[in-house]
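step=encode ok
step=design start
structure_in=
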């Protein structure tokens, strides 16, 4: 179950992150990376998502590959790949939040400096 559900969640997250980074998904309180720095401004929202998108896509690829491996293999090795899926999800969330927050703060500081 984990081998399928988590990669699907990461795929959905990657698509939403990409859409927000491209400016298609506007700043909101429902979908996207919703931390204080990304919600502060439209430029921070886009910059944060743009910075996080490659990390989310990488997490999806790792979790999908590990998920397929977990489904195809048996026994303890399948469990190892299932653990990799969970670790990929956790690492993706942590790194994406950090990168998005930092990029959003930088975008906001740049906007203030040019004003």
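sequence_out=
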């Amino acid at each position: 179950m984990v081998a399928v559900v988590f990669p699907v969640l990461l795929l959905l997250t990657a698509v939403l992150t990409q859409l927000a980074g491209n400016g298609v998904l506007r700043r909101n309180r429902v979908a996207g990376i919703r931390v204080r720095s990304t919600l502060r401004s439209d430029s921070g929202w886009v910059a944060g998502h743009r910075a996080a998108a490659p990390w989310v896509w990488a997490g999806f690829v790792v979790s999908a590959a590990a998920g397929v491996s977990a489904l195809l293999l048996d026994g303890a090795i399948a469990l190892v790949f299932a653990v990799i899926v969970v670790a990929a999800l956790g690492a993706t969330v942590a790194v994406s939040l950090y990168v998005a927050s930092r990029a959003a703060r930088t975008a906001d500081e740049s906007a203030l400096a040019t004003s």
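step=design ok
step=annotate ok -> The helical segments are 2-21, 36-39, 42-72, 75-114.
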